[in-house]
Design goal:
Blueprint lengths: L2 H9 L12 H10 L4 H8 L11 H7 L3 H15 L9 H11 L14 H7 L2 H7 L5 H7 L10 H17 L15
Protein name: Type III secretion protein
Length: 185
Protein backbone atom coordinates (compact mmCIF):
# COMPACT_ATOMS: atom_id res chain seq x y z
CA UNK A 1 0.00 0.00 0.00
CA UNK A 2 1.28 3.43 -0.85
CA UNK A 3 1.98 6.39 1.38
CA UNK A 4 -0.43 8.42 -0.76
CA UNK A 5 -3.29 5.98 -0.10
CA UNK A 6 -2.54 6.16 3.62
CA UNK A 7 -2.61 9.98 3.67
CA UNK A 8 -5.77 10.14 1.55
CA UNK A 9 -7.57 7.76 3.88
CA UNK A 10 -6.26 9.59 6.95
CA UNK A 11 -7.38 13.02 5.70
CA UNK A 12 -10.83 11.99 4.44
CA UNK A 13 -11.96 8.80 6.19
CA UNK A 14 -15.63 9.63 5.58
CA UNK A 15 -15.10 8.95 1.87
CA UNK A 16 -14.49 5.29 2.82
CA UNK A 17 -17.27 5.10 5.43
CA UNK A 18 -19.87 2.39 5.84
CA UNK A 19 -23.16 3.20 4.10
CA UNK A 20 -25.11 3.85 7.28
CA UNK A 21 -22.83 6.73 8.26
CA UNK A 22 -24.10 8.47 5.14
CA UNK A 23 -27.57 9.93 5.34
CA UNK A 24 -29.02 10.47 1.90
CA UNK A 25 -29.30 14.23 2.20
CA UNK A 26 -26.23 14.99 4.27
CA UNK A 27 -23.48 12.81 2.81
CA UNK A 28 -23.58 14.23 -0.72
CA UNK A 29 -23.57 17.78 0.64
CA UNK A 30 -20.81 16.96 3.11
CA UNK A 31 -18.71 15.33 0.40
CA UNK A 32 -18.89 18.54 -1.63
CA UNK A 33 -18.36 20.68 1.45
CA UNK A 34 -15.18 18.93 2.56
CA UNK A 35 -13.27 20.45 -0.35
CA UNK A 36 -13.71 23.92 1.13
CA UNK A 37 -14.59 23.20 4.75
CA UNK A 38 -12.54 20.16 5.66
CA UNK A 39 -12.47 20.96 9.38
CA UNK A 40 -16.26 21.31 9.59
CA UNK A 41 -16.91 17.97 7.91
CA UNK A 42 -14.34 16.29 10.14
CA UNK A 43 -16.11 17.66 13.20
CA UNK A 44 -19.48 16.32 11.99
CA UNK A 45 -17.99 12.83 11.66
CA UNK A 46 -16.05 13.13 14.93
CA UNK A 47 -12.62 13.23 13.27
CA UNK A 48 -10.11 15.68 14.75
CA UNK A 49 -7.55 17.04 12.29
CA UNK A 50 -3.98 15.93 12.87
CA UNK A 51 -0.99 14.81 10.88
CA UNK A 52 -1.06 11.15 9.95
CA UNK A 53 1.32 8.80 11.71
CA UNK A 54 3.80 6.72 9.76
CA UNK A 55 1.85 4.51 7.36
CA UNK A 56 0.98 1.14 8.86
CA UNK A 57 0.37 -1.45 6.13
CA UNK A 58 -1.89 -3.52 8.38
CA UNK A 59 -4.08 -0.55 9.25
CA UNK A 60 -4.19 0.65 5.67
CA UNK A 61 -5.38 -2.78 4.53
CA UNK A 62 -8.20 -2.54 7.07
CA UNK A 63 -9.00 1.04 6.13
CA UNK A 64 -9.33 0.19 2.45
CA UNK A 65 -10.81 -3.31 2.77
CA UNK A 66 -14.13 -4.17 1.18
CA UNK A 67 -17.17 -4.53 3.45
CA UNK A 68 -17.01 -8.33 2.95
CA UNK A 69 -13.36 -8.36 4.00
CA UNK A 70 -14.17 -6.32 7.10
CA UNK A 71 -16.94 -8.79 7.99
CA UNK A 72 -14.46 -11.63 7.55
CA UNK A 73 -11.88 -9.86 9.73
CA UNK A 74 -14.37 -9.55 12.58
CA UNK A 75 -15.54 -13.16 12.12
CA UNK A 76 -11.91 -14.33 12.33
CA UNK A 77 -11.28 -12.20 15.43
CA UNK A 78 -14.47 -13.51 17.04
CA UNK A 79 -13.67 -17.16 16.28
CA UNK A 80 -10.09 -16.77 17.45
CA UNK A 81 -11.05 -15.16 20.75
CA UNK A 82 -14.06 -17.42 21.36
CA UNK A 83 -13.17 -20.75 19.72
CA UNK A 84 -15.91 -22.68 21.52
CA UNK A 85 -18.73 -20.53 20.09
CA UNK A 86 -20.57 -21.40 16.87
CA UNK A 87 -19.05 -19.77 13.82
CA UNK A 88 -20.01 -19.07 10.21
CA UNK A 89 -16.43 -19.81 9.13
CA UNK A 90 -15.59 -22.78 6.96
CA UNK A 91 -13.58 -25.62 8.49
CA UNK A 92 -10.22 -24.40 7.14
CA UNK A 93 -10.62 -20.91 8.60
CA UNK A 94 -12.02 -22.31 11.86
CA UNK A 95 -8.91 -24.50 12.24
CA UNK A 96 -6.71 -21.49 11.54
CA UNK A 97 -8.53 -19.52 14.26
CA UNK A 98 -8.25 -22.40 16.74
CA UNK A 99 -4.49 -22.59 16.21
CA UNK A 100 -4.09 -18.85 16.62
CA UNK A 101 -6.28 -18.83 19.75
CA UNK A 102 -3.76 -20.99 21.61
CA UNK A 103 -1.40 -18.00 21.77
CA UNK A 104 -4.00 -15.66 23.25
CA UNK A 105 -5.34 -15.17 26.76
CA UNK A 106 -8.67 -17.00 27.15
CA UNK A 107 -10.58 -13.94 28.37
CA UNK A 108 -9.53 -11.46 25.70
CA UNK A 109 -13.14 -11.21 24.50
CA UNK A 110 -16.03 -11.93 26.84
CA UNK A 111 -19.37 -13.35 25.63
CA UNK A 112 -21.09 -9.94 25.49
CA UNK A 113 -18.14 -8.10 23.90
CA UNK A 114 -18.16 -7.03 20.28
CA UNK A 115 -15.01 -8.16 18.40
CA UNK A 116 -14.86 -4.63 16.99
CA UNK A 117 -13.99 -3.53 20.53
CA UNK A 118 -10.60 -5.22 20.05
CA UNK A 119 -9.90 -2.99 17.07
CA UNK A 120 -10.79 0.06 19.13
CA UNK A 121 -8.42 -1.11 21.87
CA UNK A 122 -5.63 -1.89 19.40
CA UNK A 123 -5.48 1.44 17.54
CA UNK A 124 -4.75 4.88 18.94
CA UNK A 125 -7.66 7.31 19.42
CA UNK A 126 -6.91 9.37 16.28
CA UNK A 127 -6.90 6.21 14.16
CA UNK A 128 -10.09 4.93 15.82
CA UNK A 129 -11.86 8.22 14.92
CA UNK A 130 -11.19 7.36 11.29
CA UNK A 131 -11.41 3.58 11.07
CA UNK A 132 -14.69 3.42 12.99
CA UNK A 133 -16.38 5.02 9.99
CA UNK A 134 -15.82 1.77 8.08
CA UNK A 135 -18.27 -0.07 10.35
CA UNK A 136 -22.02 0.31 10.93
CA UNK A 137 -22.77 3.50 12.83
CA UNK A 138 -25.12 2.06 15.47
CA UNK A 139 -22.66 -0.73 16.24
CA UNK A 140 -19.83 1.76 16.72
CA UNK A 141 -21.87 4.11 18.88
CA UNK A 142 -23.02 1.20 21.08
CA UNK A 143 -19.54 -0.18 21.64
CA UNK A 144 -18.12 3.28 22.36
CA UNK A 145 -20.32 3.40 25.48
CA UNK A 146 -18.00 0.93 27.22
CA UNK A 147 -14.29 0.26 27.19
CA UNK A 148 -12.29 -2.92 27.08
CA UNK A 149 -9.25 -3.19 29.35
CA UNK A 150 -6.71 -5.80 28.32
CA UNK A 151 -3.95 -4.98 30.76
CA UNK A 152 -0.62 -6.29 29.51
CA UNK A 153 -2.09 -8.16 26.50
CA UNK A 154 -1.32 -5.44 23.92
CA UNK A 155 1.49 -7.39 22.24
CA UNK A 156 -0.83 -10.37 21.81
CA UNK A 157 -3.55 -8.10 20.49
CA UNK A 158 -1.05 -6.63 18.02
CA UNK A 159 -0.10 -10.14 16.90
CA UNK A 160 -3.77 -11.06 16.52
CA UNK A 161 -4.57 -8.11 14.27
CA UNK A 162 -1.48 -8.57 12.12
CA UNK A 163 -2.26 -12.28 11.71
CA UNK A 164 -5.91 -11.73 10.83
CA UNK A 165 -5.18 -8.98 8.31
CA UNK A 166 -2.47 -11.16 6.77
CA UNK A 167 -5.00 -14.01 6.54
CA UNK A 168 -7.63 -11.98 4.71
CA UNK A 169 -4.96 -10.75 2.30
CA UNK A 170 -4.20 -14.37 1.39
CA UNK A 171 -7.82 -15.23 0.60
CA UNK A 172 -8.74 -14.81 -3.03
CA UNK A 173 -11.88 -12.70 -3.21
CA UNK A 174 -14.12 -14.14 -5.91
CA UNK A 175 -17.25 -12.25 -4.94
CA UNK A 176 -18.46 -15.01 -2.61
CA UNK A 177 -18.31 -14.88 1.14
CA UNK A 178 -15.19 -17.03 1.63
CA UNK A 179 -15.97 -17.66 5.26
CA UNK A 180 -19.49 -19.01 4.88
CA UNK A 181 -20.03 -22.71 5.27
CA UNK A 182 -21.34 -24.54 2.24
CA UNK A 183 -24.63 -26.34 2.72
CA UNK A 184 -22.83 -29.66 2.31
CA UNK A 185 -20.42 -29.05 5.22
Amino acid sequence: MSNLAWVQWWATPWLYSSEDWRTVDEHAALSMLYHSRHLRVGKIYGVAPCLPPTPQPTLLQLALASPDQLDLVLALIDSTCRPTYASALNENLQQWCNRLSKALPPDMLLPDDDPLQLLRTWVNPATWQRIRLRFPRRRVLDLEKKSLALGDSYSRLDTLWHAVVWRIATINSDGKAPYAKDHGD
